[in-house]
Amino acid sequence: MGAPSFKEIRRAYGFDEVAIAPGQVTVNPDMTSTRMKVADHAFDIPIMASSMDAVVSPAFASLMHRKGGLGVLNLEGIYTRYDDPHTTLEEIASAPQAEVTALLQRIYAESIREELVGSCVETIRKSGAACAVAVTPQNTKRLSPVAVEAGADIVVVQSTVTTARHLSRSYEGLIFSKFVKQVKAPVIVGNCAGYSTALELMETGISGLLVGVGPGAACTTREVVGVGVPQVTATLDCAAAREEHFKRTGRYVTIITDGGIRTGGDLCKAIVAGADGVMLGTPLAQAREAPGGGFNWGMATPHPDLPRGTRISVGVKGPLKEILHGPTSLTDGTQNLVGALKAAMGMCGAMNIRELQKAEMIIAPSIKTEGKIFQLSRN
Amino acid sequence: MGAPSFKEIRRAYGFDEVAIAPGQVTVNPDMTSTRMKVADHAFDIPIMASSMDAVVSPAFASLMHRKGGLGVLNLEGIYTRYDDPHTTLEEIASAPQAEVTALLQRIYAESIREELVGSCVETIRKSGAACAVAVTPQNTKRLSPVAVEAGADIVVVQSTVTTARHLSRSYEGLIFSKFVKQVKAPVIVGNCAGYSTALELMETGISGLLVGVGPGAACTTREVVGVGVPQVTATLDCAAAREEHFKRTGRYVTIITDGGIRTGGDLCKAIVAGADGVMLGTPLAQAREAPGGGFNWGMATPHPDLPRGTRISVGVKGPLKEILHGPTSLTDGTQNLVGALKAAMGMCGAMNIRELQKAEMIIAPSIKTEGKIFQLSRN
Amino acid sequence: MGAPSFKEIRRAYGFDEVAIAPGQVTVNPDMTSTRMKVADHAFDIPIMASSMDAVVSPAFASLMHRKGGLGVLNLEGIYTRYDDPHTTLEEIASAPQAEVTALLQRIYAESIREELVGSCVETIRKSGAACAVAVTPQNTKRLSPVAVEAGADIVVVQSTVTTARHLSRSYEGLIFSKFVKQVKAPVIVGNCAGYSTALELMETGISGLLVGVGPGAACTTREVVGVGVPQVTATLDCAAAREEHFKRTGRYVTIITDGGIRTGGDLCKAIVAGADGVMLGTPLAQAREAPGGGFNWGMATPHPDLPRGTRISVGVKGPLKEILHGPTSLTDGTQNLVGALKAAMGMCGAMNIRELQKAEMIIAPSIKTEGKIFQLSRN
Amino acid sequence: MGAPSFKEIRRAYGFDEVAIAPGQVTVNPDMTSTRMKVADHAFDIPIMASSMDAVVSPAFASLMHRKGGLGVLNLEGIYTRYDDPHTTLEEIASAPQAEVTALLQRIYAESIREELVGSCVETIRKSGAACAVAVTPQNTKRLSPVAVEAGADIVVVQSTVTTARHLSRSYEGLIFSKFVKQVKAPVIVGNCAGYSTALELMETGISGLLVGVGPGAACTTREVVGVGVPQVTATLDCAAAREEHFKRTGRYVTIITDGGIRTGGDLCKAIVAGADGVMLGTPLAQAREAPGGGFNWGMATPHPDLPRGTRISVGVKGPLKEILHGPTSLTDGTQNLVGALKAAMGMCGAMNIRELQKAEMIIAPSIKTEGKIFQLSRN
Predict the structure, then answer these.
(1) Are the C-beta atoms of residues A25 and B165 closer than 8 Å to each other?
(2) Per-residue pLDDT for chain B (379 aa), expressed as one digit of tens each?
(3) Is residue C94 part of a domain?
(4) Using omega within 30 degrees of 0 as the cis cutoff, is the peptide bond preceding D327 cis?
(5) Hey, are the CB atoms on D362 and A21 less than 8 Å from each other?
(6) What is the distance in angstroms between the Cα of A7 and the nearest Cα belonging to chain B?
(7) Do C307 and D326 count as a contact with CB atoms less than 8 A apart?
(8) Closest residue of chain A to B17, computed from CA coordinates
(9) Nearest C-alpha of chain C: how many angstroms from A220?
(10) Are residues C301 and D330, on separate chains, in Cβ contact within 8 Å?
(11) Residue D194 within a domain
(12) Beta partners for residue B11, in sequence order
């Protein structure tokens, strides 16, 4: 074994490997603000609900709005393919695990109906909520005008990996710089990891960027195709791009860490890594009001010949209100996420999200005291 | 993924990741001294019992004194809220695990009674023991005069994260530099992690500093809010601040590593990382005389809307005397902690705590030979 | 512990410790080519089947060819020792685990028959498939002429560790530079790890190099003798040698990562680490058509006095077609390996294998979200 | 958290974290020599049996000699305290695990009888074997003359940590430079870790050095008192001291890695880290002829008030001959240790131990392919 190597490889970090160090000043949590902005839209809490069918139905999007956040509706899922999505959801929830991926493949082979796109958007808007919709790049030109026409406030263009330059034989590539000018709503794009890609996407004029390739609990992209970037490093890199873009242009692009967040602790770490907000899938799929009925699955699960993810059982933890705002008697970090965020802000002396981004982060592998010498009884 | 990152993150270490290297000189353990000082108070062993209700009752504080150490009584716990704390402790010990956090929330909602503060302190003092009491910053101005009036020797101002500067809307912040001059007892402050914060706190005139944010076995702060610093790094950093402060002022502030210590090995590592002493919770909650009855829970457990920790079952290991001084037939490091400390001092050629702080420490992940090839039978 | 150390040790990485970062450009998978060349032989997919008796029989070699890849027949295994290999394979499959290594030792003590070497090669050639055969250095001079005479297209000279210089008392060492000129077929040599050894082997005129010492699932070389190099580092090093050799001579030697690949993700990582192709054992032993009948064992398993590996139960996953090309409903990465490769190429913007080698790789320990907070039900 | 830290801590490595990289030349194992020398005594294999009562009885020492190695008899164990050691050994083997440490404490409280020291040595010498005996520093002046008088060839002065300078109140410290001149046998000293300590001990004129503090399977020193150095780093450091001492004086001190070696792979790694030989406890306690009857315990286990280790069940693997020289059908690395060593030498192109010390070592965490995707059936 000798000197030269074929390429350099650098270390990347996930939530489990880091912790937040307390600050030199502390503040009372009741003095902190958790406000997040996407273009001109402001939200009381920096939390979006994932564009997954088990998480965001039109009704859940309205509920998220009432709790201060934003639900993103998947325009290529069950709600725009089936007149009666509830029956389909029940079918998924009751399928045996061994057969469920094949079932999902069949269910998502049904075609998307534009009239359902329109009516879903209208349902959300009628409730008084802001409406955000997600489309894949392939379908953006077709579906996003329908949604915006029906009243959608924010368009999310989302696939496993999205870059500013895509080569395709079968359809003319989506040119973000053109699309952003044409569509009458702010555009969030994702998912992305990496400084240069993030910078290039920001230069097209987007308002927000979803960060995260392969980290979600319901996603096996990294196992199946080897591609994936741990979320702390992905967020650090994209946040660096945001700062650079802001310095160059004065335009602030919202960074949203999407995937892999399971607890209040992870959420706080995402912010300290530089995010302005987070997108949550499984933690919200655990809400009593979530349409998945105790299950969750990702957008790549029903892929016809290479599914990357499966239906996972996430259980039902409690009402969305308690998951987001508490109070709670659970001590595993899965409830009162906003309370946890405010507590972390207090310990770091941060009055707002922008200040929490300046807190110190350390590399500190997860604690595993339990089961070592003390037997923790939690039954 | 590109060059610039949003921030630097440095590696931090916990007890499981380090070991002590033997010295170039060895001494017989019987020649070593384990003395610790806090201001003018000297203790034969460098061990404090945590200000947790399951660890230190007034009676246990007296016992700690007789064994050479110091017990710290929590002035905001069961002993100052209830006339009959034993009934309350039994209620906690017999509650089902699923309901215990909610029960703790209710129990700690009862108000603190100043006359009980006074009588607790007097009980400890009458036994001939030194009396140390713990208060949170919010209640320091109200409760500490009552305690000192009743005879308390040392005041510990303690919360999850304490800094020299705290911003609050609801109460006027505690100014340590003023408080230290007013109160007629040496002041220990905590908890803290980080060189600059430690230095700033020392400059206010305190006598001791509790090191440790989020590492205890009964604490889930790091899981719930993401904040936490592994103890070896936290101690190294605060010890560096103590040296700097000593160099500048000639005043030696006692560094006490608080939380995460489970064995004699951990205790020794804390000293080698720079501590002058340690504060133990769960290892002493396992004493036959501890009031928790085989359980332990932290000060953040009964938080009304964001509990960070739960009741853990720690079992009853033996009398406090054996845990501290042996002899023992146990080989898991949980008994004869002082014997272990003296053995380590012998192997490192250290005559006293200050010399043991100079021993070499290495990064060495825990040994897991067991269950690999040899099946260790310990049943 | 002091300053000077006896030697430097550098960090090496395996598949579980790295991930691929997406590119700045993406392409549609249907635009990518997965072509691999060995000398003048081209293959549609960069996958060889291992020269293990449980993987490649003459029939399986033909099948591999039809699916776009290349099967390598072990010339020192059951097929050239027994007239009726199927009976022997069944004997192995039905032996109790405690006795199987001793049984394998007995079975492989039978002598190799040259007429069976010839007839195996002819069977493969008659099917229209390219024929690759594997021999150990000791038997190369004796067996390879027989095989080439019978029509073998590629000769693989393979042992646990092969170098350009071997010292032996019992037989005259094989001199690769001479052998390569004499034999009328391109030569692949292995296994190898390390830049200098790889470079020295390439200078002898070989056409391909097998990379991997001790990483296979059916191999315990690293446990038994301590020797082993994690595959990512081994591949990076040998790929660096290939580039250097190409720069010096203009001759491109095919690098094949052999061993330790379990999923599509691992396969993709091998390419990003610099491989031109991979050799798979256990993943193909799981094919319905594989001769091992749900088991696998390595070439070092039947060693008469120091077996290094044992028979492992790998199960039967499905037809070879699905393992290689899908479609699949499995989401653990073990099926549709070529689909996974094309998906990774798409995410990295790579039109061919050579471009995928230029993708970015990061150090990222495996994700273990499962069983942490969410209980994944996969039963 | 700020800039200055209290002390530097450097990374240390154990067997599980490293692997040996193959060499650029390979040799046939039958051409290699595994010879080890201690002063003028030469041994065919570089393996000593530990001075543990469950490993070396006088009869086992004779057997070790016949198999090419050296058994070291503990002069402060059961064989020199009891007329009928077999009864005592059986008592230990049949005690329930919960009571065995207390039993060991009682058994080793019996006094050492000098006439038994003499007769043990004579028994070994009469069998024609070289006789090595182990004493602790406290008892060296009293027991070693008795043993040497009776014919002991090598004296091993051994305790958990031994340095050239020891301070004691209760007995006059052993001065090695004096002792080495007085005693009529070569002296091996240990255990030791660290360059400076090793160098200082070598300067006293010793012939061999035992390396290893706290790594053995039957030792919990690192857990109980926090002191311990992973074996690869400990060996690298002491080997560096040996080279330095040799350069300065021309005298070659034998480095013996003692503790933590479980497999042939570990043994080979110890040599590559710089050892001239190894001392084995548990792997030889597993021999059918070992006196422990399937159990093992360390010298620190019976400590009267701070036992550091316990009786572990190691099982009976086979006759010593198979453990050392094979042949074997086991593939877990616990049998044919010398065959494994010769295989590693072959892969590294090393003709003798001194050449194997020059092989390359890499940092490579243990492989855990098993139980990931393939279910290995080994029942």
Answers:
(1) yes
(2) 445 779 999 999 999 999 999 999 999 999 999 999 999 999 999 999 999 999 999 999 999 999 999 999 999 999 999 999 999 999 999 999 999 999 999 999 999 999 999 999 999 999 999 999 999 999 999 999 999 999 999 999 999 999 998 888 766 778 999 999 999 999 999 999 999 999 999 999 999 999 999 886 667 888 899 999 999 999 999 999 999 999 999 999 999 999 999 999 999 999 999 999 999 999 999 999 999 999 999 888 888 888 888 899 999 999 999 999 999 888 889 999 999 999 999 999 999 999 999 999 999 987 554 333 333 333 2
(3) yes
(4) yes
(5) no
(6) 14
(7) no
(8) A365
(9) 7
(10) no
(11) yes
(12) A363
